[in-house]
Design brief:
35% of the residues lie in helices and 16% in strands. It has 9 helices and 13 strands. The strands form 5 sheets. Strands 2-1-3-4-5 form a 5-stranded mixed beta sheet, sandwiched between helices. It has a two-stranded antiparallel sheet with strand order 6-7. It has a two-stranded antiparallel ribbon with strand order 8-9. β4 and β5 form a beta hairpin. α6 packs antiparallel against α7.
Length: 347
């Protein structure tokens, strides 16, 4: 092979893109890395670094780690950029054009390991044209795949199953089994976490918040830690904001939102509807899914007159037994939801 592509030095880096964080340490990453090392030995290149990049190749503006790797190479005078295949370099035309400019200026030499192709400043226009065709093919593949994934996710959401990768705390993904008891390769459903402590932690967050007077988010956090429901190595990540995120998540009410649309979920409840909405009242929210004309005074438009509060006025009935007659009577009281904990007592 001609060596006029070598340029000013033999230093090389290999930005090796993998599709997900789960592939970062698996065979896909190791295979790419090994083949790059073997390629460098055959062509006399010095591999400075092989970088595992878990990013999309479809949108240039989202490729932060990739651009950091390229910038670092240019800054350190590394000339040779190794990609396992054409689609590992880019699936968008912006990055394709930018890299061509670098090649034309003699700043970098691009290597495609699997195809045994080298693109340098002296390459004929036909080689750049073939690369353009590959970039267009890769871009179209990415577009088509994205459309199929969106349709698949929407269909799954419409069937009542959350289509995301990581469900909220207290739940896990579980693959269904076939008639022989083996896990199916595709598809999954959401079920309560097999780690009972994870489920109990979320339940206790709701139970504590529903107490009177309403505990603050910080108080809930401290009590959860004191009860030993959060592992010690996770305490530093367990913030009051995370507690609030759990308490307001409609997933615990048997619903979920996907791409701006709300769906009714089929996942099993770990929080009862009564407890969920009792907690929502502490944030000044009303239950739009239960027709109860007495639930919120003025259909939710009546607010607390205290300038430092302003929370919704809610229906808080009290059932009492009259001692003299034994009659059970319901007194229809209304009070501030006290979501901001301005009031010392709930009257």
């Amino acid at each position: 092979m001609e060596t006029n592509w070598i340029g000013r030095n033999r230093k090389a880096i290999a930005p090796l893109r993998v599709s997900s964080s789960g592939q970062e340490g698996n065979t896909s990453w190791l295979t790419q890395k090994r083949e790059c090392e073997e390629y460098c030995k055959r062509h006399g290149l010095e591999l400075i670094e092989a970088v595992a990049i878990v990013e999309t190749a479809r949108k240039s503006e989202l490729r932060k780690k990739y651009k950091t790797a390229i910038s670092k190479a240019l800054k350190n005078g590394v000339q040779h950029i190794l990609f396992h295949k054409y689609d590992r370099e880019a699936r968008n035309l912006t990055d394709n054009e930018q890299n061509e400019d670098l090649v034309r200026q003699g700043k970098v030499v691009l290597h495609y390991i699997a195809d045994n192709k080298i693109l340098h400043a002296g390459s004929p226009d036909s080689e750049f044209f073939n690369r353009d065709i590959q970039a267009a093919i890769n871009k179209n593949y990415s577009r088509d795949l994205s459309t199929k994934v969106r349709k698949s996710h929407r269909a799954k959401a419409e069937s009542g199953w959350w289509p995301g990768c990581r469900p909220p705390d207290g739940y896990i993904q579980q693959k269904p089994k076939n008639e022989k008891g083996f896990e199916r390769r595709r598809g999954s459903v959401i079920v309560p976490d097999t780690n009972i402590q994870a489920v109990r932690r979320v339940q206790r967050e709701f139970e504590i918040r529903a107490e009177v007077p309403t505990p603050s988010l910080k108080e809930i956090r401290n009590r959860i830690i004191a009860e030993g429901l959060i592992p010690q190595d996770q305490v530093h990540k367990y913030h009051p904001s995370l507690v609030e995120k759990h308490l307001k998540n409609i997933f615990y009410d048997g619903r979920f939102e996907w791409l701006g649309v709300e769906y009714e979920g089929k996942h099993e409840r770990i929080i009862t509807s009564e407890l969920f909405w009792k907690v929502q009242e502490t944030f000044g929210k009303k239950n739009n899914f239960r027709k109860n004309p007495n639930a919120l005074f003025g259909h939710g438009y009546m607010k607390c007159a205290d300038a430092s509060c302003g929370c919704s006025i809610i229906f808080d009935p009290k059932v009492k037994t009259i001692k003299e007659t034994g009659e059970v009577k319901t007194y229809k009281y209304y009070r501030c939801s006290n979501g901001k904990r301005v009031h010392q007592s709930l009257k």
